[in-house]
Amino acid sequence: MNARLRPHDSSGAIAPAGQSAHALRPMTPADLDAVAQIENTVYDFPWSRGNFADSLTAQYHAQVLTDETDSVRGYFVAMPGVEEMHLLNISVDPAVQGQGLSLLMLDAVVLLSRADGAYLLWLEVRPSNTHAVRIYERYGFYPIARRRDYYPSVDTQGRASREDALVMSAQVDDLLQRRGLRPA
């Protein structure tokens, strides 16, 4: 899926035409350095460049969000399954966070899910990442389970530890309706 996008303001309205446009396009090997740089900035326990390369090799849905200069500002990786889609990673460059770009990428994931015939979209998130949990809940995801000791972490004394994952899910049709999205 390729799309030209304009950021939304906090009310959900499309930003004025004078603001910069963003585009979604398939991730390529040439994007991996920029993607890895954002990943290393955003996460304490980031995916490696190799994880992203493996996702491309596996032909997962991997897209980058670029600005008007074609600089990578965000990305997502989603793995199709039988009548479901698993959102593996979604991130926005900290320099452009707070502009609704994660919602635009989530919209793209939902549309890809529908195009692939998925009925269910699901993801894992750290419960300690309360900002992301709130975004997903507002978007229409709901918690369905916990995966014990899923993520690497450190405890309060700096020792290696593990953190549970909150598994969240949503029906693709519900998200399409909630967001007013129309599949092509």
TrEMBL record:
The active site is at 124 (proton acceptor), 136 (proton donor). Acetyl-CoA binds at residue 129. It is an enzyme of class 2 (transferase). Keywords: Acyltransferase, Cytoplasm, Transferase. GO terms for molecular function: protein-N-terminal-alanine acetyltransferase activity. It is found in: Cytoplasm. It catalyses: N-terminal L-alanyl-[ribosomal protein bS18] + acetyl-CoA = N-terminal N(alpha)-acetyl-L-alanyl-[ribosomal protein bS18] + CoA + H(+). Belongs to the acetyltransferase family. RimI subfamily. PANTHER family: [RIBOSOMAL PROTEIN BS18]-ALANINE N-ACETYLTRANSFERASE, L-AMINO ACID N-ACETYLTRANSFERASE. This is [Ribosomal protein bS18]-alanine N-acetyltransferase. It comes from Thiomonas intermedia (strain K12) (Thiobacillus intermedius).
